[in-house]
Amino acid sequence: MNAPVEQPLTFHPPSHDGGLARRLRAAVRGDVLFDRASRGRYATDASIYQVMPVGVLVPASDDDVRAAFEICGELGVPMLARGAGSSQCGQTVGACLVVDHTKHLNRVLDYDAHAQTVVVEPGVVLDALNAWLRPHGVWFPVDVSTSAQATLGGMAGNNSCGSRSIAYGNMVHNVEAIDAMLADGTDARFGPESAMAASAPRERQLVAGLRAIGERERDEIAEKVPRVLRRVGGYNIDVFNPQSERPYTRDGSVNYAHLLVGSEGTLAWTRRLTLAVAPLPRHRTLGVVNFPSLYRAMEYTRYIVTLGPTAVELVDRTMIDLARGNPAFRPVIDGALIGEPEAVLLVEFAGEDEGAVRRKLHDLATMLNDLGLRDSVVKMTDAAAQKSLWDVRKAGLNIMMSMKGDGKPVSFIEDCAVPLAHLADYVERLTQVFEKHGTRGTWYAHASVGTLHVRPILDMRRDGAQKMRAIAEEASAIVREYKGAYSGEHGDGLVRSEWVAWQFGPRLARAFADIKALFDPRGLMNPGKIVDPPRMDDRTLFRYPPGHRTLPVATALDWSAWNVQSDPVADVVTAPGTGGDPANGFAKAAEMCNNNGHCRKFDAGTMCPSFRVTRDEMHLTRGRANTLRLALSGHFGDAASAAEVRESLDLCVSCKGCKRECPTGVDMARMKIEFQHQWQKAHGLTRRERLIADLPRWAPWASRLSWLANLRNRWSWLARLGERELGLSARRKLPDWRFDAFGSRDMPTATIEDADVVLFVDTFTRYFEPENARAALRVLGAAGYRVAVAQARDGEALCCGRTYLTAGLVDEARSHARRMIAALAPAVARGIAIVGLEPSCLLSLRDEYLVMGLGDDAKRLAERGMLIEEFLAREQALGRLALPLRALPQSRALLHGHCHQKAFDVMGPTVAVLRLVPNLAVDVVESSCCGMAGSFGYEAAHVDVSLAMAELSLLPAVRNADASTLIVADGTSCRHQIADGAAREAIHVIRVLERALVTEARTPDSPHA
Ligand SMILES: Cc1cc2nc3c(=O)[nH]c(=O)nc-3n(C[C@H](O)[C@H](O)[C@H](O)COP(=O)(O)OP(=O)(O)OC[C@H]3O[C@@H](n4cnc5c(N)ncnc54)[C@H](O)[C@@H]3O)c2cc1C
Ligand code: SF4
Ligand code: SF4
Prior knowledge:
binds flavin-adenine dinucleotide, binds iron/sulfur cluster, about 1000 residues
């Protein structure tokens, strides 16, 4: 155990609460969160900082916020507005009452087609707004990379800018009015000057004060405010003497809302935003220009922009390589490359006339030819292909953050903007600065407007702070030389507010202080940002402050792959297990979460079903990773098994959505197993947990006595007793035990030694749905394969051990895994496929088995283990599958993928196999987790959340399917959820094939042709 170290100052509990929590609870309808875990979850954003808030309010309405302003005003407690918390500069961390308006204040309030404006609450997410606007043929075009989670309130707070800012400008160019609440709780509307004359006295007084400051500083504004489009530092004082390359208003008049844009919540709280929308371009084309060097890419950007593109975005070599390392991105990026370029520019043209945007693409290729880069452009006109490539570009930063080790790319000069004429030289000189300080950076993003993203790799636990300052000083000197903006996209926050005076000079810095004093004389709105900032390198504000420690943990799983260090210059990663993590890599795995908020997804993909239902930070992958990180660094005491973590993990359904979709690879399902292991060691298991874990042990008996075991589903008093004693919901029917479980009489005659393929029959299939295993034998047999069924050497049924893993009983799971490995060793030795039916069971061979200390045998088994549809699809692709299938009475199948199928990218083969059935159209439900997740949905405490998860998309899609549609789901629990929630029978894909078999001419044991 490490010697206890003094906790960082920023984590001291608030001493000036003054009954704040109590008073808030009495006054508001929303959630008031003052426990240490909740506060810890709001102590970070996507920056390097961490400051414990006083407490958190999740308001149910504006009135809650008003009440909070009043109470906080009386007690002198500062307030901090927060959207998705995806800010990179520390804007949303502070010792304040944090107000998270994403859960309830997220409505689109009004759309005016004539005026082309939309009115929204601050918690509306950009993608949600654009989905809402699409039917009207318009969109809100400030397309930030974080569009799936960034809120309009946060975007206005940061004056955010999208990839297409060259065509549409930044937030400030697209906000028409802001209905705000001032620090004293009064409402005020800010908009065009002409509309302000009729406003209330407090607003008029503010406007008069602001105008006086603006007039006073007119010359200074012209002198000091950079004349670039991308300038988001300080307050937009140039509303009084416009300097932006793109005017803020059409006629040059003042719009007072623009002063609030980019003010980072330091002036007022935004209640509503009136936004200008733009027509959706009907046609887009994309040219990917491949460059032999980064310098050339930057040099040619200024020529490319003369063609009038809507975006010119850079992706450099490192980013290309990192993207290729991601299985989802690799084919997309490969399709955009010609040879091995050092950099590519994504050049987009958009407009109403298809011919015109295609011609622009042609002009681009001609221009590059003329510039000496022959055949360097990949032309993309297909919308889906363009979207896939944009998705890779949008994921750029996240891809970069997947770097393991303590050195991470750090955001502090990541968005300096320089005029295009200097872009190439700027990149070259800054690269030299990085080299001088023993690091390197990866370049990407908005070349069109001279805002390149670059993050030098620094170790913020060691010498990162010193290097950060040194690099910042040298970078700022270069930016000044080129008359650029030091903050061109991400704002000031904690990392750059110190540089506001440097950028704008002492006189304008004083003017900013005057503006702040007009709005917020007591300094209660997000203090320390823009005005009166702390030093950027004040390490007490860091996520890893001096004295940071990690608790030693004897882990059950192997986390050594995370326990590494990396050398940014040599690009070398040390051997697994050498990273110096006292928690054996478990802590470093949790620290992979950089808080970017990508898991706050609401539509596509799987991640994160529990958050989609509750919208609570504690039920988000990020919230869980933060809770775990805090626990492992001793914030909840000296044990890794903190109750706070258990609570946060309670609704995690281990769907592995994050494993695939979190850009830095946070794998919460695996962390839950490890945590559960630590927990049960310290606290034991509940009776229900033990019973379910041991299911493989007692299943044979339950099957033999199925008439007795199934009484629970018939006698309601037994169900109620089960709920009281075991916590299994009486509202749920449990799976029926089958007397005709899969057994010796089903065994084919082939043995592993002479079979073509081995079938692994898992516990659930064996005892609950043996017809699926029988169908598998029939289908494989009909296709001519000799099939053996895997059996343990002791003759007992095999089990993958999943139920034990769920309970954290890793030792028991390991002994089951060893039996599997031993039983299947001959198949592995012969190199034949081992197929399974239940995704969560079979795929554990390719996942958890590899981190259970089972050595190379487990790796070899993983190479052979596949779902039956993967096997059939592979055989089909190799031209070896001869499966006699006929059309079914049904012409449509609706397929719901098990989460683990999606996590392991097995949906393709599943669809391919279904499509073998003649005339069968296959639709895949765009669904997250079904919500049943093993025993989760059967538990009384979870049944409502479980059904709510299913109602997000799965159950409505099933209900909407007509009665003749086949509902297909490979997961046992998914099928039960569908039966319970939509009263429809879903079947395993293998049974669809079985139904479609033409004849059973070949027997299961006949030789494979
Ligand atoms: C991977 C990644 C990519 C990014 N890409 C881009 C990009 O392409 N372009 C870009 O501009 N930014 C980008 N960002 C930064 C960030 O995502 C954006 O600034 C985003 O708009 C912030 O939205 P949010 O809802 O997370 O706001 P938050 O981070 O929660 O808040 C932002 C600021 O607004 C203030 N605020 C929030 N709500 C209110 C309110 N109701 N009233 C007053 N003030 C309020 C907050 O106090 C804070 O100062 C990126 C960040 C990450 C991690
Ligand atoms: S868990 Fe992953 S997706 Fe979520 S914030 Fe952390 S790094 Fe981003
Ligand atoms: S495993 Fe699923 S439920 Fe758990 S955190 Fe990841 S995405 Fe969310």
